[in-house]
């Protein structure tokens, strides 16, 4: 494994940061100043000197039309419209047609703590549908429904907000899950707003804005 990839895999820094640290002589490889492109094996010893990563955590209100990961030609990502820096990335996803809260960080350690299935991190969404939803269909969503892949979604909490809008609380995050759940019952989603992830709430943050967080706040400590 290349040394910059190794440092990134250890959550020490990004690959780009690793290359910079190597050029600055702050990485030791088996006791000697490392050079770019070195391969690291299990027997090798890699040390970092004179560097301490400054971790960043943000709550961001993603607008509709912005993708959270892997933009295709003509699309814009969160990184394209913000100045967080190349090392900051979204934790989890929020699809292009949806808006609301997403967590951004440069701390790879936090990802498992927030996204591992066993954590069952709660996420709240306000969902507006193309027609009024019946109480019977709310109960079906609450118990879980079979979506297009054959997967049966886990039970969730549902609260009616109006004739055609519900608040849904999930503890899982399949790709475009809420839209697929609605489609399974012949509804279309007109608007999807995520308002909470675990201990973090969107509150009244305007679209496109952010606020700083702490690791302790993220993990509810």
Overall description:
This protein has seven helices and 14 strands. It is α+β, with helices and mostly antiparallel strands and 221 residues long. It folds into three domains: 3-48, Structural Genomics Hypothetical 15.5 Kd Protein In mrcA-pckA Intergenic Region, Chain A (Roll), CATH 3.10.290; 57-116 and 200-218, 2-Layer Sandwich (Alpha-Beta Plaits); 122-197, 2-Layer Sandwich (Alpha-Beta Plaits). Helix 1 crosses helix 2 (15-23). The model has no long low-confidence stretch (mean pLDDT 92).
List keywords for this structure.
alpha+beta, 22% helix, 28% strand, 7 helices, 3-stranded antiparallel β-sheet, Alpha-Beta Plaits
- Rg: 21 Å
Broad shape? elongated
CATH class of the largest domain, please?
Answer: Alpha Beta
Number of domains: 3
Please state the second-level CATH architecture of the largest domain. Answer: 2-Layer Sandwich
Task: Please tally the β strands and state the result.
Answer: 14
How much of the residues is beta strand, in percent? 25-35%
Distance between the ends: 36 Å
Can you say what the CATH homologous superfamily of the largest domain is?
Pseudouridine synthase I, catalytic domain, N-terminal subdomain
Derived from helix and strand composition plus strand pairing, the structural class reads alpha+beta
How much is the average pLDDT? 92
Q: Examine the coordinates and then state which fold CATH places here, giving the name of the CATH topology of the largest domain.
A: Alpha-Beta Plaits
How much helicity do the residues have? 10-25%
> Uncertain runs with pLDDT below 50, 5 residues or more?
none
Listing every helix as H and every strand as E from the N terminus to the C terminus, the arrangement reads: HHEEEEEEHEEHEHEEHEEEH
Please identify the oligomeric state: single chain
Report the sheet with the most strands, covering strand number, pairing sense and barrel closure. 9 strands, mixed
Number of discrete helical segments = 7
């Amino acid at each position: 494994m290349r040394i910059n990839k190794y440092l990134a895999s250890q959550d020490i820094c990004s690959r780009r940061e690793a290359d910079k640290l190597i050029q600055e002589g702050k990485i030791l490889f088996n006791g000697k100043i490392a050079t770019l492109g070195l391969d690291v094996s299990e027997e090798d010893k890699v040390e970092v000197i004179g560097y301490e990563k400054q971790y960043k955590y943000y709550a961001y209100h993603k607008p509709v039309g912005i993708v959270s990961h892997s933009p295709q030609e003509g699309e814009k990502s969160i990184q394209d419209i913000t100045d967080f820096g190349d090392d900051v990335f979204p934790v989890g996803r929020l699809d292009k047609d949806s808006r609301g809260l997403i967590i951004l960080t440069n701390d790879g350690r936090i990802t498992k703590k927030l996204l591992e299935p066993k954590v069952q991190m709660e996420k709240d969404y306000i969902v507006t549908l193309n027609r009024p939803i019946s109480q019977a269909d709310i109960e079906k969503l609450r118990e879980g429904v079979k979506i297009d892949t054959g997967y049966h979604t886990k039970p969730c909490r549902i609260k009616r907000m109006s004739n055609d809008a519900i608040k849904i609380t999930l503890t899982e995050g399949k790709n475009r899950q809420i839209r697929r759940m609605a489609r399974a019952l012949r509804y279309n989603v007109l608007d999807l707003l995520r308002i909470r992830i675990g201990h973090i709430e969107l509150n009244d943050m305007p679209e496109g804005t952010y606020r700083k967080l702490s690791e302790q706040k993220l993990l509810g400590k």
